[in-house]
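Q: I'm writing up a methods section and want to include an example of the input and output format. Could you take the sequence below and give the corresponding predicted structure tokens, formatted cleanly so I can copy it straight into the document?
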Amino acid sequence: MPHTPKAVVLLSGGLDSATTLAIARAEGFECYALSFRYGQRHHLETAAAANVARQLAAARHVISDIDLRLFGGSALTDDIAVPKDRSADDMTHGIPITYVPARNTIFLSFALAWAEVLGSSDIFIGVNAIDYSGYPDCRPEYIEAYEKMANLATKAGIEGTQRLAIHTPLIRLTKAQIIERGLALGVDYSLTRSCYDPDDQGRACGRCDSCQLRRKGFRQLGRLDPAP
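A: Here is the clean output for your methods example:
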């Protein structure tokens, strides 16, 4: 019986990470989904991540607790208003206050630790450098640098039993292309949540950067976003 390789997939509960999980599964990996309660403004996304992990048959789904509110510095972890109604041009300039300092570095470090324990050489992350809000830890050069560092940082790497690869299947896709790929792979986008500032009923604001980029993607495909 052929060996099925294992992959750790970072799963936020949003559109991009759900698509990434579907892609990893379609590429033949046994997927271990990793999510975080990191002190973000709401827990809707971790509930969404659990639903997505079930829908896409992850072998295991772990939600890790860390508290980035200790440091603050972001509208997602501090008492800072989430920017609304920014233009497409605004989103291409500067780093917005919704950036969480070092978040992807922290998340990838947890994924690296779990991958080493699992005997996995593959981590998937749904970063994107096209339709995104200017986060520095979503760029290809960041991922390349992290991958190089990761292969110097573990016992498995030093002993030659692991050569880690960080997969970024969405990095050069538009939001519409991401959605199209996910639909072809059976992703139920009604389960995903992307809004930075949902209301008490869990409905998306429709005005933050994340909502606008998501809505743009569905609109370009002539579809309505199925999430509330």
